[in-house]
C-alpha cells in the first residue's frame, strides 16, 4: 500500500488524456499528471512518485521532490499567513500548512522555521509542526561512544548548536569543536561524543583519533586538486586560517598532513603543501 507523504514505487494501470493512473493499493488509483510522466511511459511500468493531497484535497502523485517527507525535519520558509495558520514553501505546488496550534512561536512571512512534517490522522492531511519536542523520543537514548549518526541542526545556544539525532533525540555540538558553518535545518553526519549521566548527549562532527585523520584525508586531497595542487598552509599557519580554509582544527590538519606525507601523496614546502 502507498504511504501518503512519502515516495512510493507504484505500477501504471492506465494512460489517459490527463496522465497516468497508478495503483496505490488500499488508497485506490492515483493520478500522475501528464507534466510528470516520463517519456515512453507504458502500462505496468513502475514509477517512483511522491503521494500527497492537491489543493482540492485529492490524492495525487508527482515526481517532484519536496524538501521533506513525512516524519522528517526541515527548515522551511513561510510564504503566507491566514486564518488557518502559516503556509510553508516545501518545493511542491501546494504549500504546507502549519496550524496555529502547531506553532511553537507565532510564525511570520519571510522567516524560516525548523518543522516536522506529519500526517494528521484526524483530517488525513499533510501538515507541519514547529513544536519539535512532541516528535522526539522521551526515553533515554542507547547510543555508543563514537557511533555514526545523522544530524539535523536545530538552532544555536550559548554553548553551541542543538541537533536532532537520527530524527529521534536532542544532542549538543559545542562551539569549540565546530569547524564549519552551521545553520538551522542543515543535515550532516556526526558522531556520539558521550552520553552523560543525566541522559543528555554530546556530539562531535568528526571522529576522534585515527578516524578523524582518515575522514579528513580525502577532503584535503580534493582541496589541493581544486586549487592547482597547492595550499598556502603550513605548521606556522594560525588555527583561524586553517579553519577558514578547510573547516578543521589545526591539530587535525597537522595529523592529516603528516599521514599523507608518509604515504607519499603530498610534499611539504616552506610556505605550504603540494600534491604529488
Helix/strand-derived category reads mainly beta
The fraction of residues assigned to DSSP E strands is: 35-45%
Strand order of the largest sheet: 3-2-1-4-5
Distance between the termini: 55 Å
Spatial shape = globular
Helix content: 10-25%
- Tally of helical segments: 3
Number of beta strands: 18
Gyration radius over CA: 24 Å
* Sequence of secondary-structure elements: EEEEEEEEEEEEEEEHEHHEE
Largest sheet composition: 5 strands, antiparallel
Uncertain spans? none
Overall mean pLDDT stands at 90
Features:
276 residues, globular, mainly beta, 5-stranded antiparallel beta sheet, 3 helices
Q: What does this protein look like?
A:
- The chain is mainly beta.
- It is globular, with a radius of gyration of 24 Å.
- α1 (209-226) packs across α3.
- It has helices at 209-226, 239-246, 250-262; strands at 7-16, 19-23, 29-33, 46-53, 59-62, 73-82, 85-89, 96-99, 112-120, 125-129, 148-156, 160-165, 169-174, 187-195, 201-204, 230-231, 266-269, 272-275.
- The protein starts with 6 loop residues before the first strand and ends with a strand.
- The mean pLDDT is 90.
- It has a five-stranded antiparallel sheet, with no helix packed on it. Strands 8-7-6-9-10 form a five-stranded antiparallel sheet, with no helix packed on it. The protein has a five-stranded mixed barrel with strand order 11-12-13-15-14.
- The longest helix has 18 residues, at 209-226.
Amino acid at each position: 500500500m502507498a504511504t501518503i507523504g512519502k515516495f512510493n514505487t507504484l505500477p501504471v494501470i492506465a494512460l489517459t488524456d490527463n496522465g497516468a493512473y497508478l495503483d496505490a493499493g488500499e488508497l485506490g488509483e492515483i493520478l500522475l499528471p501528464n507534466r510528470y510522466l516520463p517519456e515512453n511511459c507504458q502500462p505496468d511500468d513502475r514509477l517512483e512518485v511522491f503521494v500527497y493531497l492537491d489543493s482540492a484535497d485529492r490524492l495525487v502523485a508527482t515526481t517532484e521532490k519536496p524538501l521533506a517527507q513525512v516524519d522528517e525535519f526541515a527548515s522551511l520558509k513561510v510564504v503566507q499567513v491566514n486564518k488557518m495558520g502559516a503556509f510553508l514553501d516545501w518545493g511542491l505546488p501546494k504549500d504546507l500548512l502549519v496550524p496555529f496550534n502547531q506553532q511553537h512561536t507565532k510564525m511570520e512571512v519571510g522567516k524560516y522555521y525548523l518543522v516536522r512534517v506529519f500526517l494528521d490522522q484526524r483530517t488525513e492531511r499533510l501538515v507541519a509542526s514547529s513544536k519539535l519536542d512532541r516528535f522526539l523520543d522521551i526515553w533515554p537514548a542507547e547510543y555508543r561512544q563514537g557511533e555514526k549518526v545523522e544530524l539535523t541542526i536545530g538552532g544555536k545556544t550559548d554553548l553551541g548548536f542543538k541537533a536532532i539525532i537520527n530524527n529521534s533525540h536532542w544532542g549538543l555540538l559545542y562551539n569549540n569543536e565546530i569547524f564549519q558553518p552551521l545553520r538551522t535545518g542543515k543535515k550532516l553526519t556526526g558522531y556520539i561524543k558521550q552520553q552523560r549521566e543525566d541522559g543528555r548527549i554530546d556530539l562531535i562532527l568528526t571522529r576522534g583519533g585515527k578516524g578523524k585523520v582518515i575522514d579528513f584525508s580525502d577532503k584535503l586531497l580534493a582541496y589541493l586538486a581544486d586549487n592547482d595542487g597547492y595550499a598556502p598552509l603550513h605548521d606556522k599557519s594560525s588555527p583561524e586560517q586553517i579553519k577558514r580554509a578547510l573547516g578543521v582544527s589545526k591539530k587535525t590538519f597537522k595529523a592529516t598532513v603528516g599521514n599523507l606525507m608518509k604515504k607519499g601523496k603530498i610534499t611539504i614546502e616552506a610556505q605550504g603543501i603540494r600534491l604529488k
